[in-house]
Amino acid sequence: MSGFSPSTYLLWSILACLFESFLVAHLYSYDKFQCVKWGSGRQPGAFKRIMTYSYLATVPLLMVYSLTMTVLAYQQGLVWLKISVLALPFSSWTHTAKKRLLPLFFVLASAWAFELVTHLEELTFWMFLLHQGPHKRDWFKSWEFRVWYLGSVIAILGMPLTVIIKRANLDLCFAWIFLAGSAAGLATTLCFIYVLIRFPGFIRRVKFEGAEPEVVVRLTIFYQLNITRIIFRFMFHFPLLILALDAVQGPHDIIANQAASGELHFRFPYPLHGSSRLSDLLAMLGGIGCFVSSAITLFIFFPRSITRENGYRVKISSTPTVDKMARAPSLPDYHREQNASPPK
What we know:
- By secondary structure, this protein is mostly helical.
- The chain is built from nine helices and six strands.
- The strands form three sheets. A two-stranded antiparallel ribbon has the order 1-2.
- Strand 1 and strand 2 (85-87) form a beta hairpin.
- Residues 252-274 and 318-344 have low confidence and may be disordered.
- Keywords: Membrane, Transmembrane, Transmembrane helix.
């Protein structure tokens, strides 16, 4: 797997820069970056900060990787064949360019590890809430927390170790990064389907227990956002997993001329050599799925409330009359109040 075409890296770079700009603007509008401080929130703590910082660190790392790879890919150029035009394999890059690849692979592996930590925490925490019975459990003593802790350690150590173990062959190293990351991410996404199936019942239970309307509305919005996000997460993981599995099958000769002939001799480590357009399409779909799902995660982690930001809340009537029940308004009745932190 000798990387992607320069245009694919360019698309990734554009998406990364656009999302980073949107993230900064969203956090400023959310609470003017107060949420990134260590002691922010009603329940400050190391666990909450780890989740925040691991999520916020993912996009800058991807941006550094994509921008640098875009420049290098355009500098190294393409290989013209009679059947196709392909990206130059990493093994044929210049010595100066190859020296930059290994650090970039560590950047990519670290970003992917942070992404896995973030979404595994989200999965296990929602499962913890769904399994919450009449007796309140402690999150830090639950089996869901232990699953997150073990999975996070494996992700943080496993992704960089993949680079270290496979560093002798840069083309296959690149493929194994995508194989490990996309396989783990796909497993997390598949498990999240269980959460989506149980979520409507969870909302009904919360509503039956007398939760505030704002809590019920927010949970409903989270449910809808997660349905959309899981579609883009499949778009993120499936194409990249296909490319990675295709690459680790073994090298395939592309140009098999003798070295004495003076012509190039390449061994591309993936069999999609005749389908460069398909490879680029899969890589582009993976990039779009990655950044769109990350944007939806931003709305879930840092949900803005335009109503609350303007000093309004729903006015709840304690003794609704028959007349009001008969002609329920299409819009809720609001009245001004001081800004209050929403329940998390």
